[in-house]
Amino acid sequence: MTDFRTLDDAGPLQGKRVLLRVDLNVPMEGGRVTDATRIERVVPTIREIADAGGRVILLAHFGRPKGKPDPKDSLKPILPTLSEKLARPVAFGEDCVGEAAAKAVAALNDGDVLLLENTRYHAGEEKNDAEFARALAENGDLYVNEAFSAAHRAHASTEGLARLLPAYAGRLMQAELDALTKGLESPARPVIAIVGGAKVSTKIDLLENLVAKVDMLVIGGGMANTFLHAQGKDVGKSLCEKDLAETAQRILTAAKEKNCTIILPADALVAREFKANAENETVTVDAVPSDAMILDVGASSIATIDGAIDEARTLVWNGPLGAFELTPFDTGTVAVARHAAARTKAGQLVSVAGGGDTVAALNHAGVGEDFSYVSTAGGAFLEWLEGKELPGVEALRAKG
Ligand SMILES: Nc1ncnc2c1ncn2[C@@H]1O[C@H](COP(=O)(O)OP(=O)(O)O)[C@@H](O)[C@H]1O
Ligand SMILES: O=C(OP(=O)(O)O)[C@H](O)COP(=O)(O)O
Prior knowledge:
Blueprint: E1 17-21, E2 28-29, E3 32-33, H1 37-51, E4 55-59, H2 79-86, E5 91-93, H3 98-106, E6 113-116, H4 123-127, H5 130-137, E7 142-145, E8 167-169, H6 171-184, E9 191-195, H7 200-203, H8 206-210, E10 216-219, H9 221-230, H10 245-257, E11 261-263, E12 267-271, E13 280-284, E14 293-297, H11 299-311, E15 314-318, H12 331-345, E16 350-354, H13 356-364, E17 373-375, H14 379-386, H15 391-394
Parallel strand pairs: 1-4, 1-7, 4-6, 5-6, 7-8, 9-10, 9-15, 10-11, 15-16, 16-17
Antiparallel strand pairs: 2-3, 12-13, 12-14
Bound molecules: adenosine-5'-diphosphate and 1,3-bisphosphoglyceric acid.
């Protein structure tokens, strides 16, 4: 990563206001952080800057609040976990721009840490609006991007800001790119990818390029339902983006052309309520009751996926196979994660997984330490794998 400026190039940080873009989009339940991996991975950089006398101003997004404040997407509930992991106090600014931000920043002493409220509370963030980026830049002397997992977004705090201030890659940004390059630049074949999760519309397009890069593609989670629908199956009340059926068809055709084997669930665990221990049954994907939702892959699908992993030498995985936060709909994700971990430990597989919820799912399965590499990034990791340039990374090149 020699074409980046890194923290090593930033000069003395004493007294400098450092706008540090991090990804705090962590899994939460009942107002509490349920997986702190993304926080833990940025702690060393925050400490490093603060210990050098810098004033750390954390910029981050949470959820998708559509450009206006929404209390359910506040970063405030993350503060206790952030402060605990950092083992130091963290101040909070009620807005990331304007008077509230300026006041909070002005109150900082050298070595202090401040978290500003969700950047996505402003429409200018996702539009990468120049004026909004300038408003963010007003509070900093330099910019450090540590949010590899949001680097596929050309937003004001991930891209625009890097063009306004001296910009540097943070330690995690560097480490992620180094690890992925080392692990996956020329992967041992066959390569299997598992893509699941719930962010169907923002991730489906990248599958078209992915099928050219991998030998087998397992489509699970909410993502699978759109494909099952595209194949003419009734998915009942399942999470499904019906208007993406054509895109799904196109991906299936591209896979055939590229000789990539697509593995879709053949059976599923369905329920009528989205809650833990909801009454459930296993059905084939041709027989999903119209009032039920697919919440996990079934036993026969798990066996097929495990068998495919046995044939592979490299696995890349983003997106849980089911609603793993709710038992028993964690069964598929846990079983496949443990199988991949065992193959990895036996030296038969290189396994790379990433994504906020995917990491939480691996930790839930007790195998977070057993994969070859666990990235904080999901969508960004897949786009990197596609060979796409990531706007957040590109904006850092040759800046400083
Ligand atoms: N069949 C399904 N129906 C509804 N939600 C699902 C299903 N399968 C997976 N999910 C949800 O997908 C979410 C994770 O998706 P996503 O954000 O794309 O993953 P990541 O954060 O790892 O990139 C989890 O909260 C999980 O409950
Ligand atoms: O959680 C994230 O990505 P991921 O779900 O792909 O791991 C990032 O914070 C990006 O969030 P976004 O997909 O709402 O832009």
